[in-house]
Amino acid sequence: MLPKRVARLRRVALIGLAGALTVSMAACGSKRGSGEGVNDTLVFGAAGAPKNFDPIFNDDGESFRPIRQMYDTLVRYKAGTTELEPDLATAWTPSPDGKSWTFTLRQGVKFHDGTPFNAAAVCFNFDRWYNMKGAAAQSQMIYYGDVFEGFAKNEGDATGSPVYKSCEAKDDTTAVINLNKAKGALPDAFGLTSLSISSPDALKKYDADNVTQSGDSFSYPAYATEHPTGTGPFKFDSFDKTNNTVTLVRNDDYWGDKAKVGKLIFKIIPDENARKQELAAGTIDGYDFPSPADYNSLKQAGDQVLIRPAFNILYLAINQKNNPKLTDVRVRQAIEYAINKQQLAKNKLPEGAYAQDQFLPNNVAGHTNSVAKFDYDPGKAKQLLADAGATDLTLNFYVPTEVTRPYMPSPVDIGAAITDDLKAVGIKVNVVQEPWNGGYKDDVQKTGKQDLHLLGWTGDYADAGNFIGTFFGRQKSEFGFNNPQIFSALSTADAQVTPDAKKSAYEQASVLISQYVPAVPLTSSPPAIVVAKNVHGLVPSPLTDERFATVSKG
């Protein structure tokens, strides 16, 4: 395992386009004034509400958007690309066997509460995650579980053997993270937003680990809701749930280039048309995920529509836990045959979207033409349902509302199209609509109430494991299956350290997954972000990893 693997060369070619798209972001006709400097306020229209502000307990983009402005990670992804660059660590080196990583840390960094960032703080965070207690808290640590697989003491659904072993603070500027086995996702995964570094003092003061569950609902402590404390260019000010605004203020003690605006507000506007209207009125300066049908009118109004490369997957998940008929692979194949993916990509996704036959974008190593294919064939779907004795199949199909995602610009419309396709082959569909952060994600990912549901993924870094390893690397309530062959294939792929061996292993895993049909890959699509015309410095990211510290209004 090398700190800069050869595989990174393909990432430069893959994502280089986005890095060239440094753009101007403006508040044309803004009602807040437009003088450049720390007195400026930038207002961005968010598509959904954050769940909370503790990075480790989040896995969705609307929570990560404000979190990324307040926190730093050991390494980060260079603006507009998936390439690694220094963040809180200035250098990182693996041991020859890949089972330890030595980080040289940046000096002179302070947390927002004034306490120092050092190697002891790094170790406190990693030890905190590893030693997390309680099934409720562990269940919310999605990314940690995907990367490090297990805890000191697994509770609830957590079953994996831990990858993490220990952390040593050799001195203030040297931290060594020791692992029980080499992990192919590293060092890239050290840049995950979930693995942002928090102030140890604040974590202790505000009872950060006290996550509780009542029925299907989770409650988070004061650290996550009122006192998030990182080292980033912006500091937390407030989350006004009445007015649906998250307000951050400039961190004047930031270790790097200071933010170019004094205040950053994320205004939560779930309806895409309402976001468009507020941009036109000048009450927001930009918003994410504009409707593809609005691209031309936005451009004609003088706004900038910035297209990111397609680096995501939309899928229809199949949960085998509740309906015995879904354990029959013929039924799962029938569901895939029933869906007209080409039509879905053409009519419901942005220009440039394409139908998928696997769970990797076509620009990620591990994508292969050897997967089993189930192209649209309603007749074949009907025949398979008959062969499986499932002509009376009834499925509960969960669809999210009050959200727009990079891979899913209009969930309700996409869900309606899929419902029509399923009904056309004789499947009865009960559609259950739930708000994204109002029960949907917990119901489909934690409690597994659904038979089918819509979800997707934007890559965090250019590694196949971040896609198919995240989805199918271990048992999950979202899919309700146990397939040791798939789990083993993905574990083997994740342990490879050379690009060729990793590519081959992930191709083999992709084939196994396609044959088993644990879910239906639907589309990959290029999401957009739209901004007005006289604010400068926003760099659109293929990872939707935009940082607002570089943005100015002028």
Layout of secondary structure:
Layout: H1 8-19, E1 23-26, E2 37-46, H2 61-70, E3 75-77, E4 84-86, E5 89-94, E6 100-105, H3 119-130, H4 135-139, H5 142-148, E7 164-171, E8 174-179, H6 200-205, E9 212-214, E10 217-219, H7 222-225, E11 234-240, E12 245-250, E13 261-268, H8 272-281, E14 286-288, H9 295-300, E15 304-307, E16 312-318, H10 329-338, H11 341-348, E17 354-355, H12 378-387, E18 394-401, H13 411-424, E19 428-435, H14 436-447, E20 452-458, H15 464-472, H16 484-494, H17 499-516, E21 519-524, E22 528-538, E23 552-553
Parallel strand pairs: 2-13, 2-14, 18-19, 18-20
Antiparallel strand pairs: 1-22, 3-4, 5-6, 6-8, 7-8, 9-10, 11-12, 12-13, 14-22, 15-22, 16-20, 16-21, 17-21, 22-23
Helix pairs in contact: 10-12, 15-16, 15-17, 16-17
Descriptive keywords:
alpha+beta; 6-stranded mixed beta sheet; globular; 17 helices; 23 strands; single chain; 9-stranded mixed beta sheet; disordered N terminus; 554 residues
Q: How would you describe this structure to a colleague?
A:
This protein has 17 helices and 23 strands. It is 30% helix and 24% strand. The strands form five sheets. Strands 1, 2, 11, 12, 13, 14, 15, 22 and 23 form a nine-stranded mixed beta sheet that branches. Strands 17-21-16-20-18-19 form a six-stranded mixed beta sheet. It has a four-stranded antiparallel beta sheet with strand order 5-6-8-7, with helices on one face. The model is unreliable at 1-36 (pLDDT under 50). The chain is globular and about 70 Å long. It has 554 residues and is α+β, with helices and mostly antiparallel strands.
